[in-house]
Amino acid sequence: MNTKTLTRADLTEAVFHAVGLSRNESSQMVEHILEEVCGALSRGETVKLSSFGTFQVRQKSQRVGRNPKTGDEVPIAPRRVLVFRPSHVLKAQINGQDISSLHEAE
């Protein structure tokens, strides 16, 4: 399995090569996209990227957990969590399946 991590710089470089913008313009475009996604999620909106997946913020209620070392009950505060649900196209691509038939079905 490949252990490389895709970074903002990698995304900027990909936009630079694919679109033909300058590196600075490509960097600004990547930053604007990420800011828009983060802003929507922080407002509680769902972000759906076709053929990629859906990012959603869910509210978790307060619950009682246990300290694994001592067994003591500890209250876990309510919080918001980010959930990602990959599309069937992304799942197929990750598993090395032919995705051309999936795109036709959409």
Give structural notes.
The protein is an alpha+beta fold and 106 residues long. The protein has helices at 8-19, 23-42, 88-94, 100-105; strands spanning 47-49, 53-60, 63-66, 73-76, 79-86. Helices cover 42% and strands 25% of the residues. β1 and β2 (53-60) form a beta hairpin. The chain has four helices and five strands; from the N terminus they run ααβββββαα. The strands form two sheets. A three-stranded antiparallel beta sheet has the order 1-2-5.
Q: What are the defining features of this structure?
A:
alpha+beta
Short description, anyone?
The protein is of the alpha+beta class and 106 residues long. It is 42% helix and 25% strand. The chain is built from four helices and five strands; from the N terminus they run ααβββββαα.
